[in-house]
Amino acid sequence: MSDIAKLQIGEKTYEFPLVKGTENETAIDIKALRGATDGVITIDPGYKNTGSCQSAITFLDGEKGILRYRGYSIEELAEKADFLEVAYLLIFGELPTKEQLDKFYADILDEAIVDDDIKKIIDAFPKNAHPMGVLSSLTSALTAFNPSSVNVDSEEDMYKAIVKIMGKFPVLVAWTLRKKQGLPLHYGSRKLGYVENILTMMFQKPNDEYELNPIMINALDKLLILHADHEQNCSTSTVRIVGSSHAGLFASLSAGISALWGPLHGGANQAVLEMLEAIKEDGGDTKKYMGKAKDKEDPFRLMGFGHRVYKNFDPRAKIIKKAADEVLGDLGVEDPILDVAKGLEREALEDQYFVDRKLYPNVDFYSGIIYRAMGIPVEMFTVMFALGRLPGWIAQWREMRLRKEPIGRPRQVYVGENLREFVEIDKR
Ligand code: ACO
């Protein structure tokens, strides 16, 4: 293939270089388009054909169902690594040595304290506030309590901001849950590992010890790894674009959390469980809901199905389905919701509508079932997703800053009124 793309507009032909990725993905580099053509731009709503950056963090092939972080397959990482190792890998590019990992965790623990005044902000929220709104607000508020983390121009400053948020974020997540449950807030313990600390901060009762269950640690580790990055999805693109104005890491993450909240993105895990419960309540008639999902007059969609990029299968869904079976078995939980989910999946995989549109279960079809078995309330599911996605967002933000990417500012094709005369209010 030639490494030039030709574009003809009217009589004129323009040439643009092709850019090749390390996995042979090809893009047309149109940086010079507008200047060369007297103002012609491209339009691509939803960015289905637009690469916003070059990135060395995550590779995914939607057709083949491949997902790799920094070149390592998601299957191998989920089996052999722990979440903190994966976080280090995503952010800094290589698997850490034991010393590097120990230092990273020690630095995180040094920052795992949240200013006590943040409690006043938490107290001001009503108990029924959605945890994603609370988390986004608290993450943004961290900027005010840690102003030195805003203008980070050197790698050293970036590192400090990164360990700060890696330390404080799990505390905020746990506090969001505890506030909802009316429990006193908890700071965790330096003696525990990253994921063990998360579970303890979330679940320890004030009058009891918390016994860590290896099945729960393993399940949460796996879920967090599977959610840790997914290249330029909606929330990650948000983090990169907000960060591109040099708004600071915490403000960028807060925006990413808001983007993740939506039911078409991370909010799907909550929506899936609510849907499965509704189907069960309605007598478990999965065929009825399949019909609704296919009816164009009905706004109902089968939550947890379909993906912008995966048009074959979501490799994370395979791992999670197996994990759901294991965790429920190990914890001795019998959940009829799992049967509804399996029935729905079976039917969808054989249904022409879903086959034609290449709609497969995505990562969040089964994750909620595991979270539920772990005793995590449904409204917290998307917060758990954010906890897993944190290192991915950080890695993408860091890469964007190190590459000195320009501020993100798309253009538009204006389709509104042409110039018209102002009409006084009494004459309208
Ligand atoms: N149920 C029923 N029909 C669906 C579904 C679904 N879940 N998803 C897509 N379709 C149909 C659409 O109606 C459309 O049909 P048409 O061609 O006849 O008009 C076709 O499949 C293509 O769908 P689009 O919405 O154009 O696909 P897009 O790539 O824009 O959307 C998305 C992907 C948002 C994930 C979509 O599949 C969806 O809404 N799924 C349910 C929500 C969900 O599970 N989101 C989580 C995504 S994973 C994540 O963020 C971690």
Topology (elements, then pairings):
Layout: E1 4-9, E2 12-20, E3 26-28, H1 33-36, E4 58-61, E5 66-69, E6 72-73, H2 74-80, H3 83-92, H4 98-110, H5 118-124, H6 131-145, H7 155-181, H8 194-203, H9 214-227, H10 234-243, H11 249-261, H12 268-281, H13 286-294, H14 315-331, H15 336-350, H16 352-356, H17 364-373, H18 381-402
Antiparallel strand pairs: 1-2, 2-3, 4-5, 5-6
Helix pairs in contact: 2-9, 3-18, 4-7, 6-7, 6-11, 7-8, 7-18, 9-14, 9-18, 10-11, 10-18, 11-18, 12-15, 12-17, 14-17
The protein binds acetyl coenzyme *A (ACO).
Q: Would you give an account of this structure?
A:
This protein is mainly alpha-helical and 428 residues long. It contains 18 helices and 6 strands. It has helices at 33-36, 74-80, 83-92, 98-110, 118-124, 131-145, 155-181, 194-203, 214-227, 234-243, 249-261, 268-281, 286-294, 315-331, 336-350, 352-356, 364-373, 381-402, and strands at 4-9, 12-20, 26-28, 58-61, 66-69, 72-73. The strands form 2 sheets. The protein has a 3-stranded antiparallel β-sheet, with no helix packed on it. Strands 4-5-6 form a 3-stranded antiparallel β-sheet. A hairpin with a 2-residue loop joins β1 (4-9) and β2. α2 packs antiparallel against α9 (214-227), α3 runs parallel beside α18 (381-402) and α4 crosses α7. The mean pLDDT is 93. It binds acetyl coenzyme *A. Residues 264-266, 268, 293, 301-308, 357, 359, 362-364 line the site of acetyl coenzyme *A (ACO).
